[in-house]
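P.,

For your records, the input lines for the assembly:
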Amino acid sequence: MKLNVSGAGFHYDAAVTSGFNNISFSVEDGEVMSILGPNGCGKTTLLKCINSLIKIGKGNIAIDNKDLSGLPRAEIARAIGYVPQLHQPAFPFSVLDTVLVGRAPHLGLLESPKPEDTRIAEQSLETMGIYHLRDKPYTELSGGERQMVIFARVLAQQPSLLLLDEPTSHLDFGNQIRVLRIVGKLAVTGLPIIMTSHFPDHAFLVSNKVALMKQGEFIDMGTPDSVITDSNMEKVYNIKVKVVNIDSGVNRKICVPVGDGGPAADTKNVI
Amino acid sequence: MEFLERKHAFKMKKILPTPFKGFNGISAGIILVCILTGLFILSFAIGRYPISPGDVVKVLVSHVIPIDQTWPDVLNTVVTHIRLPRILAAMMVGASLALAGASFQGLFRNPLVSPDILGVSSGAGFGAALAILLNGNQLMIQVSAFSFALLAVLISYGIGKLVKGNQTLSLILAGMAIASLFGAMLALMKYIADPIDQLPAITYWLMGSLASVGQKGLLYSAMPIILGIVILILIRWRFNVLAMGEEEAMALGVDTGKLRTIIVICCTMITASSVCISGTIGWVGLVIPHVSRVMVGPNHKRLLPVSLLMGAIFLLFIDNIARVVASVEIPIGILTAIIGVPFFVYLLSRKNRGWA
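Structure tokens returned:
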């Protein structure tokens, strides 16, 4: 599977918050690409355009050289799975029913899930390690559990490309890392993944490709080590950051904000 | 399909056996069909002219298989010409309103929505009042009510389409606006109506009644109702996908615009056809989906058929009360509220609610 985005542009419209222009990149099997950038830089809009939820104004997006713009929705959904930011569902569907919804692109207008679909949904729950939640109402789950259910749903969809919109936002520290482990686990199977994130550290953890987005444009793209640098971070987020390597048994880079420490630094001095 | 192969990379644990889930769809369906059948037979038996249930079955069966007549001729008239249309109408209207309510609640992802949300009832009310004002006969009143009900929804839908952004929200707002517009025009009709004969006729129509449903009206409205019901029941699983929200449903491969149009057309067809023969009957479309959700949960695969059956049972039950309780018939729209509200409050007060 190969996704090709070339010269894609989308312009401001009253209905959506931010546009982008002249975006080109490609993602193929085994790649995990993180898109980093400040709020409102157009990350989410870009993901929605890749999924054809919004039509791009310029350029083209193709999967395996097949242009997406002419394809029916169900066919796009069989190729691309989308994990949206956390939401509150209107009705307390059971976890299994929620996951079964992922089978929609494989079913006709008049069809309901068959035993085979239920089996696939149950396997997705197994894969995510949440089979025990099968019959619980989705609304009674914690934020972390819900995110797992939505991941199970996208697995049941059996796509060949995953788009994750800030999968770690609104989750506590433990759940953030748990979700990233899932992302890593899926990537190992060869499934290409594109995720937006607010955390450069997460890009170091799971991705092998990083794009930096600012005001609707990619200002740098490449391996995490080459893109997430002191100067790039300052350029994008307008804060001073030091990218340092943690040795002691971890051997991975992290981003540390530097400069005025505020009250936290004061407390340290007092003690 | 590539992904199926990839999945073997994960360690598969043995799938646990399905835990017991209590009330499932099939058992609920069987119970409700039995209740409805019993109530159906019983409804023929009760009334000003009591008939034994055995005779009811015999008269009904005699239409299908020729059997020796052991009952007086008058029973044929009472059962076939007087009670049958009314009983069928009660079941049909109840089923339609409840199904349309459940469908709209799923479409708009809001459990507080009723089938009136796009202005069907206000349009029908205005149409009926206009026909009464013009001294129209029963058929004209029905046709006018039906036409204005469709017109109201059409305008709401058109306005909703004009607005950019969230389609669900703009549809609801447009529906509210159109409903109050037709409400105002209805008030105008009442204001200029002749207070001796026209005004009471309008008022009675608005209270709802199945007393004047004839075989013809029933037949005409049955066709669109059955068509709409069949389509909604066939596509019912898709409501689960729609309930995830517009954008997610699209990401899951659903052409939401097309699906929404189909649902609005079907719901409008069945509610307009119901309202035009029965008058405005409130409450069924709101409360029955809730009761059904408490029974079988929010999955539309079970919820829609159960709402349909529950609606038929509820309105048939209420209409029986309307017929027999007092010497003067009580308007059914009043009874649905008087009996429906306490029941609804009881459900709300229970701890294990099915929708929150």
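Two observations worth noting. DSSP finds 15 helices and no strands in chain B. Residues 1-22 of chain B have pLDDT under 50 and may be disordered.

Regards
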